[in-house]
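Okay, is this right?
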Amino acid sequence: MKRGSEVHAALEEEVYTSVQIEVATKEDAWGLRVWNVIQGLRTLRESGMTRELEVWGVVDGEVVGGVIDEISFMCPDVAMEEEATHNFAVARGEAPPRRPGPTLPTNQRALDEYLNPTPPAPAKRKLYITDVKTRSVTSLPRGASFRPTRLQLMLYHTLLSSLAAGDTPLAGLAARYELDTQAPFSPAFVLQVGALADEVFYDAPSSAEEVASAPDPPVGELSRNNTLEKLWGIMMKLFTESWYGRGDWGASVSDG
């Protein structure tokens, strides 16, 4: 357990700088968790990868949550993806997809481009969920030993898909943890988070419309959204804007 915690902490520090924030209420504590997710989503959109992203949802009437080790736009294991794609196709009774052919020179066109001058629709963008496991051997789990990790990744897939689709578990979380989602955050909490303005990543606006709609600095953003309900709404909007309709979620496991 200690070794695993050390590995996860080291990986997280490659992306984020940990800062101690004091909270005065349960709502502050949950507001900080939601704020961290918001910054994680913005980091993913900015750099293509984020780590230690917390997610929540309701499964079979039960409120569940977890922390995803890594989400990225880059496939961490091409061989595993090809194997999974092949197995899914076989399970559906479909022909397995063919491996991509060799890349043609830039001055040469493929035959189907002559026969079909209309360019094909771009492939859907995929996001990959990676789970880091600490093992005593230098090999990835296979077979029965991989089943718990597979189930864990499937659960993360379900939670992320629900959040991206706009299905919010806030009411369930509030009931379970006795949270007042409309209670204002403490002034000290807002000021502490606002002091981290230089550490927060935002999309750089490139037009007048984007400038007008660009997010406030942390103090302004939290002052205008100083309840758990309002801050949660920002997080849900980011989930939806980032992923809804962008294609499938991939999943992989890496050895730590």
